[in-house]
Amino acid sequence: MRKSVEYQEPEPYVLCQDLFKIYKIADLEVVALRGLDLKVETGEIMGIVGASGSGKSTLLNILAGYDSPSAGNVTVGGRDLLNMTLREVMEYRRHEVGFIWQQTSRNLLPFLSALENVELPMMVTGLPTKERHGRALEILELVEMGHRIRHTPDKLSGGEQQRVAIAVALANRPPLLLADEPTGELDDYTAGQVLDLLGNVNREFGTTVIIVTHDPSVVRKVSRVVAIRDGKTSVELRRRVSFKPTESERQEEEVMEELILVDGSGRVQIPKEFLDSLKIRERARMSMEDGKIALRPEEERP
Questions:
Q1: What CATH architecture applies to the domain 14-242+250-270?
Q2: Max CA separation in the chain (angstroms)
Q3: Which of 55, 206, 221, 232 has the fewest beta carbons under 10 Å from its own?
Q4: Checking DSSP bridges between strand 28-40 and strand 14-25, what pairing results, if any?
């Protein structure tokens, strides 16, 4: 008699559990992440938004291998980022993750052409000249910069520089692409083009893409957006297509859903405006009523 095999759901490509990051500045301790949880599936494109100082860039630096959390667990593609050797971290940065900075000057070397900038990461990994040249041309065509391959960064517009920066990040075909405020220095129209391009990269290569941004338009360019508040994930916005019946046919209608996130310890962040409207301060009463959770001020009883 055969034993039934229990189905196990595959692990997310990116898995962060109870992440803390504390920086010490002089005699002060600054808490950037406070028990953050995050799951990102393989091949997903998603955005992370939050106010300055919320911890979103800190999270991206940890996922890129540029920084380490003070506590918690983080895995990317099954790799435990907290327990890698220095050599393993170096190999991870070279082959497994591409990074796009907001400041274009950090993405490109000013004395190299667009083609040479894209070839450089492949040169570091030892790829033969003919192969890296062909791949660099292919990627530059993908980002619609095939006509500017001989130009140095100072001859390119801000949007063109970011396109080349995306090509550089994709040079070694990493399965994960991280973009830290990639549209922060661009006008609205060019920013939209860059976000569309990241979507094309996601579809063309199946690359998992995480975009940290202040740009609210990212909501309509990715599958979902997670908001970080005070170092923790708070809410998630998802795009959902519904069908609206009309007299002649069914019409597609895009709907945005906002969901509150529950972490692995059962914690949620309740929006301040909700707490203020209920006059809840430091303590509250919670009860289960008709299959729903009710929250009341401390002095109010069910």
A1: 3-Layer(aba) Sandwich (3.40)
A2: 75
A3: 206
A4: antiparallel
pLDDT digits (tens, 9 = 90+) for 26-73: 778 888 999 999 999 999 999 999 888 888 999 999 999 999 999 999
pLDDT band at 16 (very low <50, low <70, confident <90, very high): very high
A 10 A CB-CB count for 172 gives 19
Instruction: Enumerate the domain spans of the chain.
Output: 14-242+250-270, 271-302
132/168 Cα distance (integer angstroms): 12
Contact 94, 125 (CB under 8 A): yes
